C-alpha cells in the first residue's frame, strides 16, 4: 500500500474521490431525511407515485442524454495538457450543442408520451398534471457539460460542493411539507425545486471556472463546425450515448416496470431498497469519477493505467465487504427508524440486492479501461446485452416471485454487466502493446 500511494496519479484519484465522498456523505444523510419525511407524510401508494413521476422524467432524460462529460474529458483533457485552448473551446461548444438538442428532444418526447403511458406505469389521471410539470426538468437533467468542465479542470472540490445542493433543498422542503401537511403536491414541488436548484448550481460553478480562466466563450453551442475539427467526435458521442442510455435508464425504468406489473406501493419499496443499495455502492462511483479523467491522460499501451485499475478495484472491493456487513447489521433498524414499520419489507429486498455489491464495486474500472483503449463499441455491446438480459429477467421473475423477483433480477443484471465487460477488457489488456502511445484522444485526432 505504501508503494501504491507513492504513485502521484493514484494519490490524485484517491484525493478527488475523497472530495466527492465528502459531498456524497452529507448528501446521503440529507437524502434519507427527505425520503423519511416523504414516506411518513404520505401513504405508501402516494409515495410510490412520487417515485414513479421522478423515475419517468429521469428515465426519459437517461434515454436521450449524451455523455458529454466523458466527451469533454476524452478530448478536452489532452488538449488542456497541450495548452490547446482552441480545441478545448470546440470540445465544450460541441458538448453544449448536444446537451441543448437532446434536452429539447427529450422534453418534447416525454410530454407527448406521458398521457398515453401514465396509466400503464401506475401514474393516475389525477396526478398527470404534476407529472407533466416534472417533465420540464428533462433539459437540465440531460446536461452533462458543466460536470465535464469541472472534471477536466480538476475542480472536484466544486463538484463536491454542488452535490449538497439538491439533497439540502430536498430535505428542507420535505421537512416543511411534512410538518405543514402540504401533502403530495408539496412533496412533488419539493423534488422539482431541489433537482432544478442542483442543476443550475452546477452550471453556475462551471461558468465561474471558465470566467476565471477567461474562456466564457467556450459555452457557445455548436455541432457540425466543431465536429469537423474533432476527428471521431460523432462516433464517440453516439456510442457512449447509446451505452449509457441503456444502463442509466436501469434504475428509473426498473421502478416503472415494478409499478406497472405490481403496484405503486411496490415501486416505493423497490425504490427504498435501490436507494440504500446505490448509497452503499457510492464509494465505487466516486472512485470511477476520479479514475476516468486520470487514466485518459496516461499511455494505454503501458502497464501504468492497468495497474491503477487493479489497485482501485481492490480498494473498492474491500470497502464493499465492510459496507456489506454494515448494511446487513444496520439496514433494518435504519429503515424502521427512518420510514416506519410499514416499509421494513424493503430491508428483505435490500439484503437480496446487496449480494451483488462486491461485484458491482470491484468492477467499476472496467468501463473506463475500455474507453481508454478505444473499445467504446465493446462497452456498448456489453452494456446493451446485459441490459437486455436484465429486462427479460425483470419481467419474468416479477411474474414468478413478485417483488422478490425484481431483487433477483437486479442481482443477475449486475453480474451480467460485469461478466460482459470483463471479457473485452482482458482482451484489450492482452493487446495493449498494439495501442497507440500518448492516449486515445490524440490517436483519434
From TrEMBL:
Keyword Metal-binding attached: no
Keyword ATP-binding recorded: no
Transmembrane parts of this sequence: 21-39, 45-64, 104-125, 131-153, 165-184, 256-277, 308-329, 349-373, 380-401, 407-429
Subcellular localization: Cell membrane
Keyword set, alphabetical order: Cell membrane, Membrane, Plasmid, Transmembrane, Transmembrane helix
GO cellular component, one term: plasma membrane
Membrane topology: Multi-pass membrane protein
PANTHER family referenced in this protein's UniProt entry, alphabetically: INNER MEMBRANE PROTEIN YGHQ, PST FAMILY PREDICTED COLANIC ACID TRANSPORTER
Name the record gives this protein: Polysaccharide biosynthesis protein
Organism for this UniProt entry: Novosphingobium resinovorum
Amino acid at each position: 500500500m505504501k508503494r501504491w500511494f507513492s504513485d502521484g496519479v493514484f494519490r490524485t484519484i484517491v484525493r478527488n474521490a475523497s472530495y466527492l465522498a465528502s459531498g456524497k456523505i452529507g448528501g446521503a444523510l440529507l437524502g434519507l431525511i427527505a425520503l423519511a419525511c416523504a414516506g411518513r407524510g404520505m401513504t405508501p401508494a402516494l409515495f410510490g407515485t412520487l417515485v414513479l413521476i421522478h423515475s419517468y422524467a429521469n428515465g426519459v432524460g437517461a434515454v436521450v442524454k449524451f455523455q458529454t462529460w466523458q466527451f469533454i474529458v476524452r478530448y478536452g483533457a489532452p488538449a488542456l495538457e497541450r495548452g490547446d485552448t482552441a480545441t478545448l473551446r470546440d470540445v465544450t461548444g460541441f458538448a453544449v450543442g448536444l446537451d441543448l438538442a437532446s434536452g429539447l428532444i427529450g422534453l418534447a418526447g416525454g410530454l407527448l408520451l406521458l398521457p398515453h403511458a401514465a396509466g400503464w406505469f401506475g401514474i393516475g389521471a389525477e396526478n398527470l398534471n404534476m407529472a407533466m410539470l416534472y417533465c420540464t426538468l428533462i433539459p437540465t437533467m440531460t446536461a452533462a457539460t458543466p460536470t465535464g468542465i469541472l472534471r477536466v479542470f480538476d475542480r472536484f472540490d466544486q463538484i463536491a460542493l454542488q452535490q449538497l445542493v439538491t439533497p439540502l433543498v430536498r430535505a428542507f422542503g420535505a421537512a416543511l411539507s411534512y410538518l405543514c401537511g402540504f401533502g403530495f403536491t408539496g412533496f412533488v414541488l419539493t423534488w422539482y425545486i431541489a433537482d432544478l436548484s442542483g442543476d443550475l448550481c452546477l452550471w453556475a460553478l462551471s461558468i465561474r471556472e471558465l470566467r476565471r480562466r477567461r474562456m466564457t466563450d467556450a459555452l457557445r453551442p455548436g455541432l457540425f463546425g466543431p465536429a469537423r475539427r474533432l476527428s471521431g467526435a460523432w462516433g464517440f458521442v453516439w456510442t457512449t450515448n447509446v451505452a449509457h442510455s441503456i444502463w442509466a435508464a436501469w434504475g428509473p425504468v426498473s421502478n416503472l416496470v415494478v409499478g406497472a406489473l405490481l403496484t405503486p406501493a411496490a415501486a416505493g419499496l423497490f425504490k427504498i431498497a435501490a436507494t440504500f443499495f446505490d448509497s452503499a455502492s457510492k464509494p465505487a462511483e466516486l472512485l470511477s469519477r476520479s479514475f476516468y479523467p486520470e487514466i485518459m491522460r496516461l499511455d494505454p499501451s503501458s502497464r501504468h493505467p492497468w495497474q491503477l485499475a487493479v489497485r482501485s478495484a481492490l480498494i473498492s472491493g474491500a470497502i464493499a465487504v465492510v459496507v456489506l456487513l454494515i448494511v446487513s447489521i444496520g439496514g433494518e433498524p435504519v429503515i424502521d427508524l427512518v420510514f416506519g414499520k410499514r416499509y421494513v419489507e424493503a430491508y428483505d429486498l435490500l439484503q437480496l440486492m446487496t449480494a451483488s455489491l462486491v461485484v458491482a464495486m470491484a468492477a467499476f474500472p472496467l468501463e473506463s479501461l475500455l474507453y481508454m483503449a478505444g473499445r467504446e463499441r465493446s462497452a456498448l455491446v456489453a452494456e446493451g446485452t446485459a441490459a437486455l438480459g436484465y429486462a427479460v429477467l425483470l419481467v419474468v421473475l416479477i411474474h414468478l416471485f413478485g417483488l422478490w423477483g425484481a431483487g433477483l433480477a437486479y442481482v443477475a443484471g449486475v453480474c451480467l454487466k460485469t461478466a460482459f465487460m470483463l471479457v473485452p477488457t482482458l482482451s484489450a489488456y492482452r493487446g495493449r502493446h498494439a495501442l497507440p502511445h500518448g492516449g486515445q484522444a490524440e490517436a483519434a485526432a
